[in-house]
């Protein structure tokens, strides 16, 4: 299902989501630590995580409500395992 995240639509949505997360200085939703929003392709850099793995819910890939900020490292460690938490809405979301 990774092809769903390779087009212009996904890039635009991911860039917009990253910008919103950066402006609010949101931490990684998986570990709670600060994300280096300036870093490019490092373990501590920002990566979009899907609350529901795309392999399970490809219909939600473009639904911003289910996106979460994460470290690249945390997102890769999580893989496509589910998360036990309520829908996420940070208090300082712009």
What is the structure about, briefly put?
With 94 residues, the protein is an alpha+beta fold.
Indicate the topology.
Blueprint: H1 8-24, E1 46-50, E2 67-71, H2 72-78
Antiparallel strand pairs: 1-2
Structure description:
The chain has helices spanning 8-24, 72-78; strands at residues 46-50, 67-71. It is α+β, with helices and mostly antiparallel strands. The chain has a domain at 27-83. The longest helix is centred in the N-terminal third of the chain and has 17 residues, at 8-24. The chain is globular. The termini are far apart.
Unreliable spans are none
- H and E string: HEEH
The class by helix and strand makeup works out as: alpha+beta
Helix content: 25-40%
Radius of gyration: 12 Å
What's the average pLDDT? 85
Strand order of the largest sheet: 1-2
Largest β-sheet summary: 2 strands, antiparallel
The separation of the N and C termini measures 30 Å
**What proportion strand?**
5-15%
* Total beta strand runs: 2
Question: Can you tag this structure with a few keywords?
Answer:
94 residues; two-stranded antiparallel sheet; 11% strand; single chain; 2 strands; 2 helices; alpha+beta; globular
